[in-house]
Specification:
This protein has 188 residues and is of the alpha+beta class. 59% of the residues lie in helices and 16% in strands. The longest helix is centred in the first third of the chain and has 27 residues, at 21-47.
Length: 188
């Protein structure tokens, strides 16, 4: 029998990392279109002597007008850049904007937007602000809280930080919180 925690970890990884199928489908589609165009042009050239002569003339004139060294250098650089981009897409882990935790009994995956909204709601309740005055962003490492106070009323940054951290840690995610309080307030 397989360990439940190992199954949870595999499921959490699947939910927090994106697949590379979009990049693979895009590259395959571009290659397929290029091959179909080449096949169509080859078939057309096989049956139409006028097209074949025009294509031969165009290719000959184009190749004669190009400098071989500079053309090969440019083509090589473009191919190298494309290869490096595809290599990096294939090897780097794609992370989704989600946080996860695993215990013996459950696996929990929470979207970063949900955690950010929970922190914003907690700050709104704790500091008696309108929801439109609090903006939060959750990243992999930290929670950022931006507060626009009501004009003439101060907002305690420590209270904001404590409320935001309590909301996030209540879900089981311990993060660092950065608080940014605007210098100018809004009119109530």
């Amino acid at each position: 029998m397989m360990d439940r925690t190992a199954v949870y970890r595999r499921l959490v990884r699947r939910e927090t990392h994106s697949s590379r199928s979009v990049a693979a489908v895009f590259v395959a589609a571009v290659i397929a279109v290029a091959l179909f165009v080449l096949l169509g042009l080859s078939a057309w050239a096989a049956f139409d002597a006028g097209f074949r002569d025009a294509a031969t003339t165009w290719i000959t004139d184009t190749v004669a007008g190009l400098d071989a060294e500079s053309t090969l250098t440019v083509v090589g650089i473009v191919a190298l850049i494309l290869a490096v981009m595809l290599f990096l897409i294939a090897l780097t882990p794609g992370r989704r904007a989600r946080h996860a935790r695993v215990t013996d009994r459950i696996a929990l995956v929470v979207d970063d937007g949900v955690l950010a909204d929970a922190a914003a709601d907690a700050v709104t309740r704790q500091c008696a602000l309108a929801r439109s005055q609090v903006s939060t962003t959750m990243t992999r490492r930290a929670l950022t809280v931006r507060v626009t106070p009501t004009s003439g009323l101060g907002v305690n940054g420590d209270r904001v930080k404590a409320a935001a951290l309590a909301a996030v840690s209540g879900a089981g995610f311990d993060k660092e919180a950065n608080v940014d309080i605007a210098q100018r307030g809004v009119i109530a």
